[in-house]
Amino acid sequence: MEKTLLRSRLPMTFPTTVPVRPTGPKVFTKSRLVTFLVAGICYLFISLLMSCSRISNENALPASGSTITSSMESYWLSDGAARASAFKELSNLRYDAMDIILKDADVALRNDSVYSVVLKPQVAPSGDAHDYLSLAKYFWRNPDTPDGLPYIRRDGYVNPEVETVQDYRLLRQMLREVYRLGLAFQLTGNETYAVKASDRLYEWFVNPETKMNPHFHWGSLRKGNTHGSRTGILDMYPIYRVIQIMPHLQKSPSYSPQLHDALVEWFSLYWEWLSTSSLASQESKGVNNHGTYYDVQVIPIARFLNKHDVAKEIATHALSVRVNRQIKANGWQHHETSRPTSWFYSVFNLQGLFLLAQQCQMAGVDMWHYVGPEGQSIKTALDYLIPFALNQGQGWPYSNLNGYPVTNLVPLVEIGYLKWGDEAYLHAMPLLRAMAEKERDTNHNTRPLSDFFCQMSELLGDNEFVC
Ligand SMILES: *[C@@H]1O[C@H](CO)[C@@H](O)[C@H](O)[C@H]1NC(C)=O
Ligand SMILES: *[C@@H]1O[C@H](CO)[C@@H](O)[C@H](O)[C@H]1NC(C)=O
């Protein structure tokens, strides 16, 4: 019932008018009120997140968490005029979010270039132009050999040479754009977006001229090696977003049953490769973020292929191989801190664990509240990082390149609050957000707007938008 109520209040399509709050005694039941408080708080958070937002709530936002809560109470409990103005504000925010999604989708729409692995001048050692190829990013020419082979590892230092093979960039761009186009279609029902999303899927996975072969045998190639590395499989992890949007795309006539069947065929072959390739087997056993992101990728693919039991099996197994093995009792992710970019990888793996918890949830396994034998959990991993994030890494006991950016940690704290209701997160949030804002000004990086929808989804409890 709460769900229906929220849906009617926060429609997933453009509202033509400001939503009107229905009146009557039922509306004010305690649980609904609580839901509303959370929704209101979340909206205020989100408003601050969105750098492109035209609306600023900063003046209205008190500094500390508890005051936020009490001010929200008066927000909702006060007279009709205050409620109406609150709704107007939320509704405006909603327009902003839509605006950004549609702008991103329109950029994707306008791009008529072909995205294909066959375009690269440098084919994989197999000689097959349809084979995906990417270069290992931390490997460099060997200074001691005339031809520079075999390449040697300098962890933490990205070799710009990776840019010379564009398959990775195109793969990621395709996955991102299909997701945005699908989202725009879902939100507006405008067929133009579904047509483009379907065209991109057809181009990458189906069209015999341009398709990619269903394997990552040549991912993360270290020059001088006769095959790719297991780590190249991680290139594909954002596929979970595409799979997530597919049920919505399927409602469009542009996403034909033939296209769907062809995609199922591609992913069946890919599944076969994952099940038999030694690279995939090694990657699944990865003890750090590689193992996490492997599961983030394979659970949704299993679900897409209707292998629900397998998805649940992987999810259950993940509790021990990802949470128990990767997180120490105090929340320390020791496999990540052994890297030269120890902060980056600690945050990156935690992002992966959040994604994984969401995938597990969809497969019927609760990783959010799972506690391992030593007391470790995703929450302890987050709690471990927050103090260092707040004091810019002071006292971080591991060697670390590239500083202590917090931008990617902010959504984890927000979702963490929705999941675990820890008041400490409410206090950390405005501080971290202000720091993230500065990082954005410096690096011009913006947070993906999908965060907005992921948090909506968390509030609605519907898994519609994975974070
Ligand atoms: C389309 O994407 C390709 C591949 O990334 C890029 O090179 C090109 O500049 C883009 N075109 C437009 C119009 O954005
Ligand atoms: C659908 O979206 C396209 C691209 O933004 C736009 O040009 C077109 O007018 C839209 N159609 C409708 C019916 O809104």
UniProtKB/TrEMBL annotation:
* Keyword Transferase applies: no
| Keyword set, alphabetical order | Lyase, Membrane, Signal, Transmembrane, Transmembrane helix
Positions of the Alginate lyase domain? 121-392
TM regions (residue ranges):
33-50
GO molecular function list? lyase activity
A cellular component term from Gene Ontology for this protein is: periplasmic space
Its protein name is Alginate lyase domain-containing protein
Species annotation: Umbelopsis ramanniana AG
